[in-house]
Amino acid sequence: MNTLLILFWEFFKAGLFAVGGGMATIPFLFDIGERTGWYTAAELADMIAVSESTPGPIGVNMATFVGMRVGGIAGAVTSTIGLIAPSVIIILIVITLLDKVYKLPLVQTVFSFLRACTVGLIANAFLQVAVLTFFDGNMNILVTPLILFAVVFVLINVFKKVHPIVWIALGAVAGILIY
Amino acid sequence: MTEKENKTTLWDLFFSFAKIGAMTFGGGMSMLPMLQRECVDKRGWATEEQMLDYFAIGQCTPGIIAVNTATIIGKKQRGILGSLVSTLGIVTPSIIIIIALASLLIRYSGNTYVQRAFAGIRVSVCALIFTSIINLGKKADKNMLYLMVTLGAVAGTFFFGLSPIAAVIMTIVIGLIAHFAQTRRQDK
Questions:
Q1: 3-class SS at A135?
Q2: Is the CB of residue A7 less than 8 Å from the CB of residue A70?
Q3: From the CA of B128, how many Å to the nearest CA of chain A?
Q4: How far is C-alpha B187 from the geometric centre of its chain's CA atoms?
Q5: Most exposed residue of A144, B4, B20, B22, measured as fewest CB within 10 angstroms of its CB?
């Protein structure tokens, strides 16, 4: 019961402060893992991969997965409701004032700053996965994943229309063959 | 709109959004075309322009864009109950699919091949996140102040253990100060 309450509260905070959609929740998930010890950064990276490869909003998928890991099915439902509760409440309030609030110069300025902050926060999430992926335990740089990264990155940017699931599948096959 | 309101049942809302949740991969912007097809073309719940407005609002309110859009449309069609039903609709398929997959993955996580596959997958995730950072950076307003906020957010959270929540609150304060500094300059 206690775990469920903590799960709800942690995801409620993530839902309240992650502005800019699913990707923006990633840095909050790293933060939760670090503070609670529920999962390691490596485990979270795997959960992100699964969430990108299954249907539905990525943020919801990640919350469900983390909740499932921490507290089973009840945990999965709790963390998802926790994540979406703040936005449902806020939207229901905002919708009545809708256009007026959204077009206020003050609100516009604050949100352009928030967009800049979100890019920084996602970059932080990237660095956390990158440290795990490209360095070994003694902080020596690993060449194989770095080459694979370069290949996948180029492919993603050449074939822009291809769905992320393809790149994740490619990574899985390469991992089984190379490592 | 009023006659449409009478025709839309809660079940319609739930079913439409559950379908979108079950059939779109990739989240975020990749869900826009599906939402448009269902809500604008098929159901007539919103116009094209309204959809874009909802997306903009969804993007700058906290939370997940597709979920926020579902909440708005549900509210417009059937009030608060409608918004709750639509929101539940869009998350239900995710919950079911992930619960099924997670129990499988947790059971087989010790398997060598599964571990090697995930080591490779992690590299792809890196590349995907890196790409979305670049795309977000391209779309962002370009100006020294924003760049400093971005760099400050990375440095603060990665090197100095700043929590993302603290970073967001600090950014809101900076945004407010910037706004009032700007209006004051214009007044003079």
A1: strand
A2: yes
A3: 7
A4: 37
A5: B4
Domain range for residue A47? 2-98
Q: In which residue are the tokens 């990276």 written? A: A45
Picking from B30, B57, B121, B133 by the largest number of A CB atoms within 10 A of its own CB, the best residue to mutate is B121
- How close does chain A come to B52, measured CA to CA in Å? 12
> What is the mean predicted confidence (pLDDT) over A43-57?
85
A150 within a domain of the structure (yes/no)? no
Residue A151 lies in a domain: no
Contact B83 A98 (CB under 8 A): no
Please count the structural domains in chain A. 1
CA angle A160, A165, A169 (to 5 degrees): 115
For residue A165, being part of any structural domain is answered with no
Q: Do the domain assignments include residue A155?
A: no
> Is A22–B28 a contact, with Cβ atoms under 8 angstroms apart?
yes
Q: What is the ipTM score, two decimals?
A: 0.80
Q: Closest Cα of chain A to B37: distance in Å?
A: 16
- Residue B14 banded pLDDT, cuts 50, 70, 90: very high
- pLDDT exceeding 70 applies to what percent of chain B? 92
Contact B64 A59 (CB under 8 A): yes
